[in-house]
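Objective 1b: paired records.
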Amino acid sequence: MTPTRRDVLKAAALGAAAWGIPAWRGREEKIRLGVASYSLRKFKRAQAIEMVKACEVRYVNIKSVHLPYTLSPEELAAGRKEFDDAGLQVVGSGNNGIGSEKELASLFEYAKAARFPLLVIAPKPELLSKIEEAVKKSGIPVAIHNHGPEDKIFPAPSDALKLIKDMDPRVGLCVDVGHTTRCGKDVVREIADAGARVLDMHMKDLKDLMDPKSQVAVGGGKMPVAEIFRELVKQKYPGYVNLEYEIDDNDPLPGMKKSFAFMRKVALEVAGP
């Protein structure tokens, strides 16, 4: 049976509770805008936290540069607390590569120590059954990140969907909209077809939807942001739209603020206050 949004949320909430991880919140917001902290990869954790706050958003997906894998469980807990104390809601971790069963086990221990409610992952296909087992055991959902035409395994969301469509509903997708369009795919159709399997999203914009070097602040390119948001509202998408700003890495804040101003305007038009 195809899982529904309710199946995903219920499964994630029950599993997360087992680890003491807060379930997804903020369901009163139809479009939940956040930051993928990879956008701030050149900055230390404390700086990144202040920059997320400067964007006037509260949701953040943490890249390992801001909570390194090498930290002890105690250090991970302390680092995570810095985000909590700043009033931010940690909504996941990623992107995280999984190339072996050893890396898989380590990643879930890392997620447990940092209390991540979701893992965005780039796995080897042969590990998917083991990943599903880890999801069932821990209750921590995973979202496979597509990486465009350079990725020979999961270029588009639909490529991952083929392999996970019968798995536990907590094994889902992180739709990177830019990488999706660069595959020549209709990103809105990809989101619609994936349905409840979309557990996370990375937002960006491109002047040329086929050219990764044409990235601009959201609103300055050709990404169909309004159509994407309409589809998310239609689906009652319970996850987050996290800005992954990959340009201006030494001074990303102006472009990030511009991106959020545009996305808030579109979200207001599409979904209401």
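Objective 1b, second protein:
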Amino acid sequence: MLERGTSALQDAWANGWALAAFSVYDLVQARATCDAAEAEGTPVVLQAGSNAFRGPGRAPLAALARATAESSPARVGLHLDHSTELEEIRACLQAGYSSAMFDGSALGFDDNVRLTRQVVAEAHEQGAWVEAELVGFGGDEDRSVTGSAPVSMTDPDDAARFAALTRVDALAVAIGNVHGMTAEPVHLDLDRLEAIRARVDVPLVLHGASGLADDEVRAAIALGVAKINVNAELRRAYLTAARQALAARDDDDLAGLLATVTAAVGRAARGKIAVYGGPGRPAADERRMAA
């Protein structure tokens, strides 16, 4: 079912788990992640947005994602990720999206505040919630880039001012994280995250968690991260399964290939959900101690 409002986000934030927000490019990924949510008994977020629109187009992908969310027994939010355009955000809200991220990281502080406030006002009128960010992340959302490194860090005092001025529902933080897999491991600045958490009274969001150690992710959840974006692991599961299946067969059984890929993506999604937790499960700090 399509999850509206912030109840799942607030539940995660209050109880030491994180919503898995899966970036999807097609029906295979959308179906696989909804199936994973149903199997694990936890809410998830489908992120069908900005960069992913380049292939199928905005309206078809938005409609596909919404239909998949609505037909799932699981609680599934529909999120527009990293949008820089008000027109795109408005179109997705009208299409039934339950949340949107306005990415004003390339703007000055005052312009970012002004436009984020506008997005928050319009989204709230339609029952949707808003994520925003102050500074950007290194790497690439759609492919892993060798040698990627953090480009900036979120200042705790700036984050507090921004959250208070915009009344945003969730804040994405830059604490050493980068988009995609990297040649060398990256590590989170957990001290900075703790300082942000002490000053910011909204759920925090972690982008670029690919390749991070599970224990480091659990530590971030314990420090206020309530939504974690997942993209690279699902892409790799999808493409690896497709390559292996194609290499092992010489037929034209497309349905069989898609079933194989869907299962692989679902396994990857369930693995992430197991780390992030969910309703009725131990909080992140308890899972970290038990790991």
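The mean pLDDT is 90. The longest helix spans residues 254-276.
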